[in-house]
Task: inverse folding
């Protein structure tokens, strides 16, 4: 399925990153008309989809003929790829021969029916990773991995990657995730946020007050906010534990913000478990798309926040960290995956491990408004200089150019 895309203009981003915009246009002139297709699992409900909704239109504006295709697959396929995702992050789960066969069959079917007539095809994550096996032509393939593969289940990793030797480059959030057979073609490739998207644009006082009223956010209380999928790796139980410890010293609220992704059937089960764990505490707010929370609402909730919290035990990158930092709030988080390169400990947030340490860090920030504000300013500048969409498009163009030129 071809995803319908909005129109975005690179010139609108010059106010944030003029040098990057100029570099993108410079490379874009050399690649004008080049056909580039991105392929992933879903058009909504996940970080990859959000990225592509900005990245692909900006590539187009620079002169590249870019498009975005999404897999067409039954729910049984997504049950298998969820297991695949978890095993690549280290879970000890068995994937049967029948499940592997379904995985390969869906990839073969999609290779035939998706619009993949292109010079460069960028495959995102494991779901469509085998499409190149069933597609003839002279396209250059790039694999973009958004998962923490630092300690994968080796049985699954070796079986998956044994048929992935057609890729010219493999892009990982951080080099810690790189393993054979990609060590010689790997590129460090952090993702980005779109400062002009509904999720990150500036908002008026009236808009924020409306969101606060709609979702029962008490603007007189400090708000700790977690933005994460309902996924065991996010450890939302620890988020609730941290909140409860902070609550012993400060009258705070906790917002757990999430979207129920199409390609994550396991998420519904975990959602119910977390709800039960939270109990009837009215200061724990579950704010999801089931209650009408879209990108603009997430933006507003983050701006109404005091501190961001992230308790994931494994994390590919954790772009929600940059989103919160862009709103000028420090984040307290576990030092996992890409989180630890976004947060500079003691400068724009705190990196801590257990529940006691995380709660103590939040208490320290709530106890010192001057440090809280200073870290917030540092947080926004870190994102502006490193993790905006323009830097991301520039990185893509540089990689594509290197692949085309051999």
Result:
């Amino acid at each position: 399925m071809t995803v319908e895309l909005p129109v975005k203009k690179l010139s609108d981003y010059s106010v944030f990153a003029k040098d990057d915009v100029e570099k993108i246009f410079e490379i874009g002139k050399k690649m004008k008309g080049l056909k580039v297709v991105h392929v992933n699992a879903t058009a909504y409900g996940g970080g990859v989809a959000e990225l592509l909704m900005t990245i692909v239109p900006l590539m187009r504006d620079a002169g590249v003929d870019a498009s975005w295709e999404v897999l067409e697959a039954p729910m049984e396929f997504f049950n298998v790829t969820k297991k695949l995702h978890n095993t690549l992050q280290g879970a000890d789960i068995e994937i049967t021969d029948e499940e592997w066969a379904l995985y390969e069959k869906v990839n073969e079917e999609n290779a035939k029916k998706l619009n993949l007539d292109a010079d460069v095809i960028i495959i995102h994550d494991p779901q469509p990773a085998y499409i190149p096996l069933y597609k003839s032509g002279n396209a250059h393939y790039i694999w973009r991995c958004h998962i923490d593969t630092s300690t994968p289940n080796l049985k699954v990793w070796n079986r998956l990657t044994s048929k992935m030797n057609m890729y010219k480059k493999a892009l990982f959030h951080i080099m810690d995730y790189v393993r054979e057979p990609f060590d010689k073609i790997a590129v460090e490739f952090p993702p980005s946020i779109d400062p002009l998207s509904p999720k990150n644009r500036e908002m008026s006082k009236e808009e924020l007050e409306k969101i606060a009223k709609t979702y029962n956010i008490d603007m007189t209380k400090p708000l700790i906010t977690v933005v994460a999928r309902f996924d065991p790796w996010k450890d939302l139980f620890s988020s609730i534990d941290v909140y409860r410890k902070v609550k012993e010293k400060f009258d705070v609220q906790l917002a757990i913000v999430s979207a129920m992704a199409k390609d994550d059937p396991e998420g519904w089960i975990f959602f119910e478990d977390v709800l039960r764990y939270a109990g009837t505490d009215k200061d724990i707010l579950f704010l999801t798309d089931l209650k009408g929370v879209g990108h603009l609402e997430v933006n507003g909730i983050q701006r109404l926040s005091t501190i961001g919290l992230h308790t994931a035990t494994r994390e590919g990158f954790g772009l929600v960290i940059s989103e919160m930092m862009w709103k000028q709030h420090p984040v307290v988080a576990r030092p996992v995956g890409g989180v630890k390169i976004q947060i500079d400990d003691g400068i724009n947030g705190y990196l801590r491990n257990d529940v006691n340490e995380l709660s103590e860090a939040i208490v320290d920030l709530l106890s010192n408004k001057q440090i809280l504000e200073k870290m917030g300013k540092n947080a926004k500048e870190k994102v502006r200089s490193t993790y905006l969409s323009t830097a991301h498009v520039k990185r893509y163009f540089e990689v594509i150019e290197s692949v085309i030129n051999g």
Q: What stands out?
A: The radius of gyration is 21 Å. The longest strand covers residues 35-40. The chain has two domains: 10-192+388-404, 205-386. The mean pLDDT is 94.
